[in-house]
SDR family NAD(P)-dependent oxidoreductase
Amino acid sequence: MSEQNTLAFTKKYGPWAVIAGASHGVGAALADQVAAKGLNCVLVARREDALTDLKNQLVDRYGVEVLVVTLDLTLDDAADRLVAAVADREVGLLIYNAGGDPYITRFLDTPVEDWCKLLHLNTRTIMRCCHAFGGRMVARGAGGVLLVGSQAALGGVRKLAMYAATKSFAMTLGEGLWAEWKGQGVDVLNLLIGTVDTPTMRDAMVRQGIAGALTMQLAKAEDIAAIALRELPNGPTLIHPDDLAESPTGSHSGLARREHVQRISAESALFIGD
Ligand SMILES: NC(=O)c1ccc[n+]([C@@H]2O[C@H](COP(=O)([O-])OP(=O)(O)OC[C@H]3O[C@@H](n4cnc5c(N)ncnc54)[C@H](OP(=O)(O)O)[C@@H]3O)[C@@H](O)[C@H]2O)c1
């Protein structure tokens, strides 16, 4: 990215980014790339040691400010706790990356209370974070929201019924917010990914007894993070890799969902107004 593009990125999405789910994998790669562009970072996850290691790396490498927030995002009041920890820092970028399914079982084989945790992680906490941080971005007329999603959002999946359902919620919410905020300087992107090399995915493959679980070639977290940041203005929803445009500007990326959301929003305006 040229110096000019980095400056434009910082102006639009700085000075602070919140990365929910930053301790490893795609979230850690996103934090690294966001900090490389000069944004200060709020790193959120449950494992304080991993976040502190990442904080030290980002401070050393890029000289940015970093706040560590150790938090379980499945808690009822997780978003309130996060907003309180962020305090008056000016957040221009919200990245919600936490949200993998730690269970991967048939619906009846996991206690309903555990499904409720996944439900909170992928619906209520996202919604409250979008309301709090998105509200501040709309007020200042600049910002971005990146929801790291899954291709499972596109329909029900065996052994991933709750995961797919909650990812659909996030995608649909993101699309509605994109339609509402696109004229107000705030970008929203759902990045729906397939299988990526993260500790959670490798652990799941081992637990499920998949042959080659540790050696199979998977998409790299760093590559997914780079695509996510590059495509942020091309919301609302990009299915990776099918939906990536070949054009150098990428402005046609995610065209199918964009046209769908634009058409539905225009048609519904006839009945519910703008
Ligand atoms: N990996 C894949 O193949 C794949 C495929 C499709 C979509 N995705 C999506 O990509 C995103 C990242 O995937 P991932 O495999 O790295 O998933 P992940 O297990 O959700 O981990 C991502 C990050 O979220 C944090 N996290 C998880 N649960 C949390 C909780 N309850 N409270 C706070 N932080 C929490 C993890 O750190 P801590 O454990 O330290 O809390 C980690 O830093 C997810 O949204 C996932 O749905 C992944």
